[in-house]
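Listing S7. Sequence submitted for prediction.
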Amino acid sequence: MQFRLLGSVEVLGDDGAPVALPGARARAILAMLLISRPDVVSSGRLFATGQSAKDPVNALHVQIAKLRAALPEPRLVSERGGYRLLTRDGEVDADVFAEACATGHELARQGDPAGAVTVLREALARWRQPVGYDFADVWRARLQELRLAALDTVLDAELTLGRHRELVPELAGLVAAHPLRERFAELLMRALHRGGRRPEALAVFDDLRRRLADELGTDPGPGTAALHLAILRDEPGAPGGNLPHPVGILFGRDADLGGAGRLLAERRLVTLTGPGGVGKTRAARELGHRLRGRFPDGVWLAELASVARDGSVLDALAATLLDGEPAAPARDRLLAHLRDREVLLVLDNCEHVVEDAAAAAELLLGQCPRLTVLATSREPLNIEGERPVPLAPLALPDAIRLFRDRAPGVRDGDAAVGRLCARLDALPLVLELAAAGTRLFSLGEIEARLDDLANASRRAPARHHSVRALLDWSHALLSEAERRVFAGLSVFRDGCTFADAERVCGATAGVLAALVDKSLVVAGHDGRFRLLETVRGYAASTMDTTVFHDRHAEVRIAFGREVYAGLSSPRQQELPARFLAELPNVRAVTTWLLRRGDGPRALVLQGLLGYLWYVCGREAEGARWLGRAVGCFDAGPRSGCDGPLAVALAWHSYLGRASGVLPDPWAPAERVRALYRTTTDRDGVRIALPAVAAVAVQLRPGTEARACLDEAEEVMAEFDHPWLRAILDAVWSEQHRREGNLAAAVAAAEANLRYFEGIDDRFGVVFSHLRLGDAEEQAGHRARARARWARAREVARAGQAPVKRGYAELRLAYLDLDDDLPAAVAALDRIRAEAAALAAADLGAAAANLLGLAHVRRRDETGAVTCFLEAVAAERALPIRTAVAAAHLTALAGPRWKPPAEEAVGRIPDPLHRAALGVLLGQLTGVDDLGRPLPGGPVCTPLAALV
């Protein structure tokens, strides 16, 4: 028997046919009895189910008698004081719905979003509005809340599974129906953002904020606000992570994944180990999906296969987890990002960088208490707290199921399939390759080929016999053209475009399609072609790949020349994205050139890419690669390379100064100046000298900086290059400010702004507005400065440059110290928090100094001291930040801060910074002697010392 309360009150017999109920009063009584189970319902409460009667007791007895007669079984029993309805588990549809909701929530909590979706969607499909009796109001509200919670969970699970595009209409309808339910708005924001509809996602937040303020007088909660901030920054880290949804069925790993999942509930580092081809990556991805419900800040996959053996795992992790421009080393940015986040980090393919991966995991786990790491490697990481989970080859029944799933056309019996699977050691990767071969050959032919190859591989480790044999077998079936392309693809890291495969390997569309069809090459949704790491290593061994490496180097150098040529074209906006897509290949080519001692080509490649290292926010990595290229060339110098050497040295100096990784960034710049005086290769030197001048303006005395600028002008007169001309105008603007010639500073900055706006160079536009605002403020035009800085903030926001935006907002807060102190305090608090999240030490220290000044103006000495102490402790901030903070601490907290203040003052090379600091110190009492070592400089405000 079945009872229905969703929709109308109904009873179904064992045959599923509806039971005829005696009337509306009897249905109401049945509804009250069902809702009240397992309690006894008093006669007094049951009276309320009908209109008043002369004899209510008798009327009730009549209805009870009719109801008993209608029910197929004797379920309605009399008890002292009233009546009770007896039911069994699963007989009442509202109970079934509630139990399904509880099961779905638990599956989601355990990290099984697919299971949760199946259960909850089935439950929601059976939903009908509960019966509408007045006595059922509380029960009905509780049930409706269960439905909304189920929708919340199922939609979140489906977003986890990557169904964001399909969910947008449903979520939009729910937001319209429940405009004050913040969670639905949050889910819609996530779906829109992941679908590339960022403006619409931001509009949803604005609508929610307005509704909450108008109707409830409140703001969105911290979770929704954090999501809004993440979408504003356009972070890939907006909740959910980056784990791709596994495709196909995973066979035979339930026990392994269950055990690993339980370990991850107790331990913070679990490593899936096993031989190549055993399925570690596939198992890790599946486990990550099952566990997503445990990690509010997402599951993140870092694929380390493309990291060179001497590459940086921390840099690879930063590229995966962080967005925007790095303002500090990867180590510090990662620690700042992960310290308070509950994240599962999947480190995939650690074996070739196992020591670096182990060091990275140990560092992050040691300082990020909410972080959990799931690694895959052919060997354990061997660090404290690790629990290895070895994956064995599949059990034979599971191997047969996998093979049949991948080769549905095979009609052979299980005995024949099982025999082949056993010969292949039941390794999933090998089974996949063999299954691909069944499109052309029978099982017998495949097995015979293995017999022929068995002797050839006996000296290899036993665990590799079947892998090598299958790859040998697959390779033997390739045409000569396919073999050449297969070997050539091994030189790429993280794949390549079709055009690059064509240039490097001589690939054609037909050959690539054949390799994809034979499961040797993976065609990605991003248009790139990749080899699995196990396959890539094999491909590299099939023939001498030197010619492919050499062509690859030429392709990357050609890309560098395209970048240089495109800097002054409308295509400039697309270059950073292309550079980041090819970054693993840039690293691989540079590593190959360095190992061969090919310093000249390493110089050319890295020199051409110098500006992209800068605009992509990878100054530290760029400086390291440039330094290695210069070192390689110096170990075996060759004639005719003065131009590439000058460019590489100039960018090494500029990026080294910007990132702080070079102890003496002026040394390589000095070498460029020496080349300028001796070389006949004017082309390279003219490209290099504007960068040298930019370094000189900030590091060298005024006369020397002028000399560098004059040298740059001399070579600029020899050729027409508008983009370099604009760069040099920007450098002149900075120099004019340091000389106190503000009219010239504004004119130069306006010239380079016009050019950058003309080619839509957002990076250049931001800095032009910042420079113009700085010059206007120095000249006393605060309103003009505010307008310039506000424009810089907006362009930086649109260009996804959070650190640059932070410096623009810092300048606006500097003005608000005089114009709107509460607004300045609020802005500075926000900037400090964002700087901490970005690990932007200098930005954070500058914000702390300005906030300290705000507290001084509010007569809050305790708050001021706290802020200045924070600025002093910022290790990688500019020396001016320490000098400002220590000087104020000397005035507020006593003379013990005077020695660090004097030391910091002595380390300030920039004359404008020194002059601005002198103005600031003149406003303090008790620190007069700190200003004595500061030479005279331009007439200025404290701005340059504070922002």
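Caption to Listing S7: primary sequence and predicted structure tokens for the chain studied. The two ends are 76 Å apart (CA to CA). Residues 453-465 have pLDDT under 50 and may be disordered.
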